């Protein structure tokens, strides 16, 4: 009777091994679920970024306001009839005048 019990326990363990530790086992499935969740988070961030880029492309194609705004902010361009004012921070030191050396 003890031999039959021992054989059944060994058989049960042999059947359980692939379920827990095999190629398609429970531990592998859990690892794959974690990887899928991580990739879905990355995909959500990329979709948000792509949506912003798509909106920017549509703005640039449809009107001149977006192009003008980019030219002003990134390139510092101004219109011909505008006056440009630059406001310095309070922490910025004023430009000291260059002392002129008399020529001999």
Automatic annotation (TrEMBL):
Q: Name one GO cellular component term.
A: cell division site
Tell me the superkingdom of the source: Bacteria
Q: What is this protein called?
A: Cell division protein FtsB
Q: Where are the transmembrane segments?
A: none
Topological domains on the Cytoplasmic side lie at 1-3
What's the stated role of this polypeptide? Answer: Essential cell division protein. May link together the upstream cell division proteins, which are predominantly cytoplasmic, with the downstream cell division proteins, which are predominantly periplasmic.
- Topological domain, Periplasmic: which ranges? 22-104
- Entries under InterPro entries matching the protein: Cell_div_FtsB (IPR023081), FtsL/DivIC (IPR007060)
Q: How does it assemble?
A: Part of a complex composed of FtsB, FtsL and FtsQ.
Which Pfam families would you find in this protein's record?
A: DivIC (PF04977)
Taxonomic source organism: Gallionella capsiferriformans (strain ES-2)
Q: What does the sequence similarity comment in the record state about its family?
A: Belongs to the FtsB family.
Question: Its GO biological process terms?
Answer: FtsZ-dependent cytokinesis
What keywords are annotated for this sequence in UniProt? Answer: Cell cycle, Cell division, Cell inner membrane, Cell membrane, Membrane, Transmembrane, Transmembrane helix
Which membrane topology describes this protein?
Single-pass type II membrane protein
Q: Where in the cell is it found?
A: Cell inner membrane
